[in-house]
Amino acid sequence: MVIRSPFLFIMFLRFSILSSMAFMYHMVSQFKSKINTMVTNSRKVKITCGNDEFVVKGVVFDKDGVLTGGFDLWKQIFSLYMKVASQKGLCVEKVAIDLFGVDEDPSIAPLSLCTMEEAKCLLAAAIWLMHKIDWATCRKLSQEIVEEAQRVISPEMVYSPLPGAKELFTLLSQHVPVAIATSDSRSNVEEMFKFWQVELPIIVSAEDVKRGKPFPDMLLKVSSLMGIPCEDLVVFGDSLGDVQMAHSAGAKAVAVGIRIPEADSWVQSLLEVSVEVLE
């Protein structure tokens, strides 16, 4: 293209220079962003649990039994389900105790591991086994029982942090990426952090993957979102499913509140965990 007018030539030149500057600024910004990501992901912490030490670039927590609640809380909620069921004329407690594993090892019991949808299904199965009414009605009654029970459950009851949980979570978040991998719903996790008044971390729930625990899918998604290999992560959990998820993805696992032989370490509570930041 030939520009004959001096005025048009100057305007064209100015436009070309400004366009080039804008492009260079964009490229530099992108480069800086990548550098910052790499620096963040290269920082490490040394986590000490008793006699065991783990040098990692990221930390993953299960929710229930690690940060909040636990098996005792789920027993209380189960009792509420049974109370509501009884008010509806349903006598299901005996078979429901077996189906949910209320009196079994917490690290493997459905009561501590199942998703909310699975809990509704188990409750519907208890209704079917005891009353032999049509399955659609069993499912409808199960849904009603859960919804009515949840109306009387306070945020303090389900979201209050266990000893050391909020403090450890906050400390780690200042230095390395932190995530939640839970069988609970995303909305419940968000409500918990709202109750804690803590900024949301990376959250991966059962809703976000095809296969939940003990499969590695949740941790693989966390790894992808963090940009950190699973080998550089440690998982804090309270069930065999948490440990199996971690190991199948290549991460380390620390059992919380209960000894799990397959875990790499264990602590009675998160108060026993110490952190050293490594530059």
From TrEMBL:
GO MF: phosphoglycolate phosphatase activity
| Record keyword Membrane present | yes
Q: What are its GO biological-process terms?
A: DNA repair
Give the enzyme's EC designation.
3.1.3.18
Q: Which reaction does it catalyse?
A: 2-phosphoglycolate + H2O = glycolate + phosphate
Pathway where this protein functions: Organic acid metabolism; glycolate biosynthesis; glycolate from 2-phosphoglycolate: step 1/1
Q: Name one Pfam family in it.
A: Hydrolase
InterPro entries membership:
HAD-like_hydrolase_sf (IPR050155), HAD-like_sf (IPR036412), HAD_sf (IPR023214)
Q: Does the keyword Hydrolase apply?
A: yes
Q: Where are the transmembrane segments?
A: 6-28
Q: Which family does the similarity line name?
A: Belongs to the HAD-like hydrolase superfamily. CbbY/CbbZ/Gph/YieH family.
Q: What is this protein called?
A: phosphoglycolate phosphatase
